[in-house]
Amino acid sequence: MKNNRKYLLPLIMLLIFETVAVTLWLTKDNLFYLFNFSYIGASVSLGVFLYIKEHKYARRIVQLLVGLYMLVYLGLICEENMQIEGFWYYLFTGAFEAATIHYAVAKIFGPVLFGRGWCGYACWTAMVLDFLPYKTPALPRKKIGWIRYITFAVSLIFVSALFLAKVGNIERIMFWAFIVGNIVYYGIGIALAFAFKDNRAFCKYICPITVFLKPMSYFSLIRIKCDKNKCVDCGKCRSVCPMDVDVTDNSRKRENGTECILCMECVKNCPKDAL
Question: How much is the pLDDT for 138?
Fold first, then answer.
């Protein structure tokens, strides 16, 4: 019975997403939301199930299932800008649709529950960057995280300028902004990965979405904790963490604590099962 209890987690995750799916379907009277959140929920739940079964590529499978869906289907086929510019666009039009719903669930309120889990399991930018060779940072962390606030401001100014100038056909511009934005993000992300020998350099220093994610992740309910009675301070968890998080510190103020992407590498590599 105890062994079966661990399988409750993927079921709970699925129920949470299904609740969101049904609620949005009924309130928005749009069947798309039922499909959208049911698919994402099923993908995430599958990943959790595979992780419990100790499948080596559990997280990567979820990344590809959700990331490609967001990038190819929603972005390229449905022509929805799911980047931050799309969020500003729908916010300014006053429409609670597409990107605004996505941001509310995954990047603004959701992180109170699952922290930066979006970055580890669904981001289509990180999905590509995680294929690069530097799985863990080979060089010390740089103190240039302030750049993310510049990219955040630039995205806001760009969309604001379009509305203030009353540019026509903004929706089409948003689609091309999604195309160009992704090309730029991938280019910069790959360049930084090789320059800093760190696949996640883009996430740490450039990504504007972290401006939303970091403060909410501070209060995350799902987080890695350390059993001090088992921990032998071997440092293995720090050496395999792609985000330089000190998971041996259980306080909310631990080093880089709001950047944990729940990749579980520290848990899998702890020799004493202390995490």
Answer: 87
Residue with tokens 């981001």: 123
Query: How remote is the C-alpha of 56 from its chain's centroid?
Result: 20
The CATH class of 223-275 is alpha beta
Write the DSSP assignment of 145-207 as a string of letters.
TTHHHHHHHHHHHHHHHHHHTT-S-HHHHHHHHHHHHHHHHHHHHHHHHHHHT-TTHHHHHT-
User: Closest Cα partner for 189 from 132, 256, 119, 106?
Assistant: 132
Taken as a whole, the chain contains a residue count of 275
Closest CA to 128 of 74, 64, 39, 191: 64
**Using one digit for the tens of pLDDT, what is the confidence trace for 15-65?**
988 998 999 899 888 898 899 999 999 998 998 889 888 888 999 999 999
CA–CA separation, 205 and 248 (whole Å)? 24
Q: Which residues contact 168 (CB under 8 A, 6 or more apart)?
A: none
Q: What are the extents of the domains in the chain?
A: 82-217, 223-275
